[in-house]
Design goal:
seven-stranded mixed beta sheet, 22% strand, binds flavin-adenine dinucleotide
């Protein structure tokens, strides 16, 4: 008989969290600390969602999405997780751009970018200053319809090189394009420019294991290998509301559900269109998901070393930046994340993770034979490209493997294998969810600004505060009044 991964759980929880991405785990942690009874269900055999890792023969550990995040992570982790975890966040100083238009080595912060833009790109200092100041002042509630491309043209007209320098790293990091609202660029870019790029020293494995310990200490019941199949609703006082979930075929009752699954999956698959107004369903269906990613994992033989060529190396052979070319099946744009031994202090190992933006449709339409051929091509092209920066690196590699949008879909169940949630309009649907179906909340990569490690953690906290109010009100209503 199959093992019961839900063995011993209780019949009722205040909250069930679907998914253990950073948004789901943070929401669960905050709500458990508020004193609520929380059950966290994850379908994978490992916690972390996209913030994950895997090991391979030969002593290799590969991180999937530990490439870089803004300094704001230190404060968020300290406040909503622990000082101990926050203490391992360190700056990455070697960010490089190599493409036909320019080569730039930078610490990726406002001071250095100002220097580069003024000295190397010859942009007037006052334009750069005005750009950064205006960007910082951008406000989500302004409802400004301007696109990122239009904003760039206002400050840097005709400067394809400057626009590439600003846009390429953000497009690589969250799949956004020149056609997305300028606010999405403004928020993400300003977060990085504040103090540069940071990482978690010790690796995703150490981070997620520490978070798991913290969840347990705060009383969260965590279960892996559990797929939530359905959010259950019942009509009370003439209105549908959440009463539980069906997971691994079992019914679990709860007052509220916080879904860390993709917003489209949450509404259309987990809750089901029948629980919402036709307008809301239409709005959800119209939400565009962001692009996906491929990755190539290169493990370096024990005993071999690599020279320091930078921590994050953004490379492209495209003559100019193009959002379409960036996600093309045959794109030449790649980000090399270089993991030197200091990523995991005490280790003497090196790995390289190559990230490539991609379209799900391109990969999902391949036959098994074509799929194998295309993955091999991806690996080969990545090694050839890396050899330009580290001659002879091929001979040092003893593990090579590729992941595609199909891999992301398989491990995270994300709609169309999206790696960066949805376009901007998804945020409105996510925020409106509890008004549509009381008790159902969503926290996870959405709307571009609420994605990435920092975005999803912060969104997890914002939504957890709303869930806390809802559950607390429920508990009060259920407590008999004492005279
Ligand atoms: C290749 C790549 C590189 C990246 N690099 C960076 C980077 O350098 N810096 C950065 O800040 N961000 C990066 N990101 C983005 C970042 O990893 C994500 O934005 C963030 O981790 C997403 O967190 P989340 O809370 O949305 O949940 P996710 O990580 O998307 O996790 C959702 C979880 O829900 C689970 N789930 C879904 N449906 C169900 C169900 N029905 N039942 C049970 N469980 C379910 C999934 O298994 C998954 O564990 C990268 C992403 C990718 C793909």
């Amino acid at each position: 008989m199959a093992y019961d991964w839900l063995k011993g759980i209780e019949e009722h929880y205040d909250l069930v969290v679907i998914g253990s991405g950073l948004g789901g785990m943070t929401g669960a942690n905050v709500l458990a600390k508020c004193g609520h009874k929380v059950l966290l269900l994850e379908h994978h055999y490992q916690l972390g969602g996209l913030a994950t890792w895997f090991t391979r023969k030969g002593g290799h550990i590969f991180d999937i999405s530990l490439h870089g995040f803004p300094i704001g992570m230190i404060k968020s982790i300290r406040k909503y997780w622990s000082q101990d975890i926050a203490a391992s966040i360190v700056q990455l100083k070697g960010v490089r751009f190599i493409n036909p238009q320019f080569q730039v080595d930078t610490t990726f912060d406002r001071e250095d970018f100002t220097r580069q833009l003024v000295e190397k790109f010859k942009v007037p200092a006052e334009t750069v200053e005005r750009f950064f100041t205006d960007l910082r002042a951008m406000n989500f509630y302004d409802n400004n319809p301007e696109t990122t491309g239009q904003m760039f043209e206002r400050y840097f007209p005709g400067r394809a090189d400057v626009q590439r320098l600003l846009m390429e790293p953000i497009a690589y990091a969250n799949g956004s394009t020149m056609d997305d609202p300028a606010i999405t660029f403004g928020i993400v870019f300003s977060n990085f420019m504040s103090k540069g790029v940071y990482t978690f020293q010790g690796g995703s494995d150490v981070l997620i294991k520490k978070m798991a310990v913290e969840l347990k200490a705060n009383g969260v019941e965590v279960r892996k290998h559990v797929v939530v199949e359905k959010v259950l609703t019942e009509e009370r006082d003439g209105r549908k509301q959440v009463v539980g979930v069906v997971a691994n075929g079992k019914t679990i009752r709860c007052d509220a559900v916080l879904s860390n699954a993709n917003i489209k999956s949450t509404v259309l698959r987990l809750a089901g269109a029948e629980n919402f107004s036709p307008e809301f369903v239409a709005q959800t269906k119209a939400v565009r998901v962001n692009s996906s990613s491929c990755q190539v994992y290169l493990g370096i033989k024990k005993g071999e070393t690599l020279p320091h060529i930078g921590d994050l190396v953004f490379t492209s052979d495209e003559p100019v930046f193009s959002s379409e070319k960036l996600v093309d099946l045959h794109t030449t744009s790649r980000t090399f994340s270089m993991y030197y031994p200091d990523t995991r202090p005490g280790s003497d190992r090196y790995t390289v993770v190559v990230s490539i933006n991609a379209k799900y449709e391109d990969w999902n339409s391949l036959t098994p034979e074509q799929y194998a051929v295309e993955k091999e091509r991806l690996i080969e092209e990545s090694i050839v490209s890396l050899e330009r920066y580290i001659p002879g690196v091929r001979a040092k590699i003893d593990w090579r493997e590729a992941a595609t949008p199909r891999t992301i879909e398989y491990y995270t169940k994300h709609w169309a294998g999206t790696s960066f949630g949805t376009k901007f309009e998804g945020l409105k649907v996510s925020m409106d969810l509890p008004n549509q179906l009381p008790g159902l909340y969503h926290a996870g990569s959405v709307g571009i600004i609420m994605s990435g490690w920092l975005g999803t953690i912060n969104y997890g906290v914002i939504v957890a505060n709303q869930v806390d109010k809802f559950i607390t009100a429920r508990k009060r209503a259920a407590t008999p009044a004492t005279a």
